[in-house]
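Tip: read the tokens left to right.
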């Protein structure tokens, strides 16, 4: 008999095969839940609302290192993104490169969000700009955004509420901020507001170079399972990993189809080939060992930026029985 399981996850190409019933989970009768990611994260961390859920990697690190997280990780990473493109600046403040951000007012929705964690990590690793050298201001991303939940007061870092504007996008447009780290382009940028651009204009080339040099495709989110379920049913954890991996491989394979294209992009197979040439043929692979460099970077960033009080290891973050689990090529 199949056991019921509630699973909260965003509808990506690599998760939709699960949600559509094309890929089963052995021994499970799943109920899939989707909502804005901020809502999923809040309900998971604060209410333990789901049996299995997508989680912010950065906030998971913080909770694991401090008060404890009600979820334990599975080495399944449904969201990944390079974040050089996430840094936006005002062009009338004399900011010509990353080091010019020292001492500036920079906005961020949540200091602990993974997009900002990775962007700050890159700025320190490649350009020597430490998080503590910047004056951080937090607030809603735009006029339609909800008020952010502030879980972290970073050690040794100036972090205060935004003043002088109602939201980060308006603050950047009006000059109340010098720069902004955003997980999606701010509305002021999209509307063509004057004196706003990305810090790294040619970000695709810079991110590709970063990937080649480091071997890292940054992880944003992971899948977590409630601790009591993981402890009681270790075999279930591997079944969940297997199913998410089967869905991922389904999406990756179909993206390369030409007869009846799987995606709405007319040159998707060519783009897949180009990206594979940069990142490797199985660039979205799950598992701890295949992603150790990216996981260790997140652990280090969290500690260096004053979020986690100690540097965690990958072995502390995942279900013990899944530490040796790996994606199928």
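Filled-in amino acids:
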């Amino acid at each position: 008999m199949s056991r019921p399981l509630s699973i909260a996850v965003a509808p990506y190409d690599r998760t939709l095969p699960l949600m559509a019933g094309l890929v089963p989970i052995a021994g499970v009768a799943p109920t899939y839940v989707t909502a804005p990611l901020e809502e999923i994260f809040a309900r998971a961390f604060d209410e333990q609302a789901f049996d299995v859920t997508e989680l912010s990697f950065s906030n998971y690190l913080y909770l694991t290192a401090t008060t404890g997280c009600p979820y334990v990780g599975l080495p399944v990473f449904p969201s990944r993104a390079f974040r050089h493109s996430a840094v936006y600046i005002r062009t009338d403040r004399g900011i010509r490169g990353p080091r010019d951000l020292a001492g500036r007012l920079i906005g961020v929705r949540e200091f602990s969000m993974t997009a900002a964690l990775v962007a700050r990590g890159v700025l320190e690793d490649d350009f020597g700009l430490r998080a503590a050298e910047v004056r951080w201001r937090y607030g809603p991303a735009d006029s339609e955004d909800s008020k952010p939940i502030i879980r972290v007061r970073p050690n040794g870092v100036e972090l205060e509420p935004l003043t002088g504007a109602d939201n980060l996008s308006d603050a950047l447009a009006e000059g109340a901020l010098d720069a902004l780290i955003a997980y999606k382009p701010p509305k002021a940028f999209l509307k063509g507001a004057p004196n706003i651009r990305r810090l790294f204009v040619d970000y695709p080339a810079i991110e590709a170079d970063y990937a080649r040099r480091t071997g890292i495709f940054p992880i944003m989110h992971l899948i977590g399972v409630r601790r009591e379920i993981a402890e009681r049913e270790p075999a279930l954890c591997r079944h969940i990993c297997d199913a998410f991996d089967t869905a991922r491989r389904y999406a990756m394979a179909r993206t390369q189809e030409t007869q009846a294209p799987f995606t709405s992009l007319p040159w998707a197979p060519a783009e897949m080939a180009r990206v594979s040439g940069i990142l490797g043929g199985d660039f979205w692979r799950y598992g701890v060992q295949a992603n150790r460099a990216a996981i260790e970077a997140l652990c280090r960033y969290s500690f260096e930026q004053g979020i986690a009080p100690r540097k965690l290891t990958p072995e502390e973050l995942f279900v013990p029985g899944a530490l040796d689990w790996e994606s199928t090529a």
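The domain at 84-214 is CATH 3.40.190.10 (D-Maltodextrin-Binding Protein; domain 2). The first strand starts at residue 3 and ends at 8.
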